[in-house]
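Structure ticket #2291
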Amino acid sequence: MTKHPLIRHPRAPEPGGPVVLLILDGVGVGTGDTYDAVKAARTPTLDKFTEHALYRTLQAHGTAVGLPSDADVGNSEVGHNILGAGRIFDQGAKCVEKAIATGAIWDGAWTDIRDQVITQHSTLHLLGLLSNGNVHSNMSHLFAVIAQAKADGIRRLRLHVLTDGRDVPDFSATDYIDQVTEQLTAVNVATGFDYCIASGGGRMTTTMDRYEADWQIVRRGWQAHVLGTARPFPTARKAVETFRNEQPKVSDQWLDAFTIVDEHGPVGTIEDGDAVLLFNFRGDRAIEISQAFTAGPEFNAFDRQRVPDVHYAGMMLYDGDLAIPQNYLVSPETVANTVSEHLARNGISQFACAETQKFGHVTYFWNGNRSDKFDKACETYVEIPSDLVPCEERPWMKSAETADAVIDAVKSGAHRFIRANFAGGDMVGHTGALDAAIIAVESLDLALSRILPVVERARGCLIVTADHGNADDMVERDERGIALRDDDDEPRWRTSHTLSPVPLMLRDFADREPRLRDDLNDAGLANVAATLLELLGYTAPENYEPSLLEWP
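Resolution: structure written out below.
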C-alpha cells in the first residue's frame, strides 16, 4: 500500500474531466489606477470569467508564504513552493536568518572555507546579488559573512557584485555599492586586511542565468569574476556611472559585466587555492554558475579557458537531487509530501508545462525543490523554449504556445491534473515597461479565451490564480501611495514584485456545486493544494492548510 494514500472525499465527487490550474505569474490585484497593467489591459475573457466564477483573493507575500516579515514581497520560487506543498514552511531567507542568529551557519561548511583560505594564504571570493530584496539574497547576510571573515582572520577578500534593479527599486545599484564599499573599507582600516570589490555586472546579463535559458550570461560572469577579462574600471561605482552616461535609461539588471583593475591589472581574479562562496540563497539562478565552478572536463556549456582549483560553496543547497553544490552553509527546509507527490504515489496522472523562464517553477519548486519526477509513468512535463530577446520586445512571450500545450493535454484525456505557468505578467513586469506589461496581460487573456471552452467541453474544472504580484503596480510610490517621478517628470517605473494579494477564480463544469468558505479571510497560497485535491475528489492530508471550498 502507498505511503501516501488518498481518501475519497465524502461530498466532492470526482470530476468528469481534468482539474486545470493556470498560474498567471506576477498578476496580482492592484490599485486599479493608471499604473496597474492588469487593470489597464483589455481582458474580456478574464472579466467574464471572474463574473461567473467563484472568486476571492489570496495572500502571496510575507509570513503567509514563509518569508521573514510581511514587508517581504512574494516571489515565484516561494509562490510555487507553497502552492505545491499545501503548507507554510520557512523559505531560504528565513532559514539563513535563523542560522545567523544562532551561529549555526559558522559550524559546518564555513570552517572548511576558512581553513582553506588561511592555510593556503589565499583569497576568499564572495559572489552574489547585491540587494536587500530578500528574493535571491540579502545584504544583511553578506555583511554577516564579511564580519565573520574579519573575525576569523581572513586577510584577503574579493567581492563580485551583481546589480539588482528587479527585486529592489531600479537605479539603486550605486547605493548598494556605496554601502558595501564602506563596510569593506572599515575592515581594511581597522585591521590592515585587503578587502575590495573585484568585478560585477547586471543580474540579467551576468552570471545569474536559470534553466539553461542562455549560458552566455554565465560565460560573461566567468570572464568578469574568474578570468578578469570583462570591461575594465577602477571602481564598481565608476563602472555603473559610465554605463549610465552611455545609456541613461539602462536598468541595473541589464548593466554590462565589468572587472575592477589597478595599475597591475585585475584586482581579484579567482585562482588555484582560493575559496568561493555564492551568497545567494535562492537556487534557480545559482545552479549554472555553481556547475561552471564544480563540473569536470565534461562541462561543455561554454569554454571556461581555465578552471581554478577552488573550494566552492553556496549559501544553501540549490538542487537537492543533483547535489548542487556539494558544500553549503545552510540546509534548506525539507519539503516532502507535496500535492503532486501524493497524486503520483497514487498513480494519478499529471501534466505540467511552462516556457523555459518558469519551467522549473511548475516542476522543481512546485515539487518541493525536487528535480526528478515522483513517478515517470504518470507525470508529463513540457518545456516551451523562451525567446532569447528582452521581454519587452516580445511581451506576449510564449502565452500562445503554452495555451497550445494545455489544450492538447486536456483534449488527450490522459491527465487528471494539469498545471501551467504563464510567464508574461512577471517577466514583462520586471522590465518596468507599462505598455509592454499591458500587452503581456492581454496575451494571457487571449490564452484563457482558448483554454476555457476546451475545459468546459471536457467537463473539467478550471482554476486561475497567481504566485505573487508584479504587473499590477508598475510605478514606484511614496508612503502615501502617490506615484514618484524623476527629474524629467517621468514616472519612476517599478521593476520589482508587489505586496498585492492575488486572485483565485474557479469554474467547475462537472455538475458539482462547490462554494467558497467564508471563514478563511486570511487564506493564502498554501490553501490551494487542499482545494485542488478536493476538486479531484479526494480529502486533503490533515497537515495541509484547509481547502477554500465547502460542498453541499
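Closing remark: The first strand starts at residue 7 and ends at 8.
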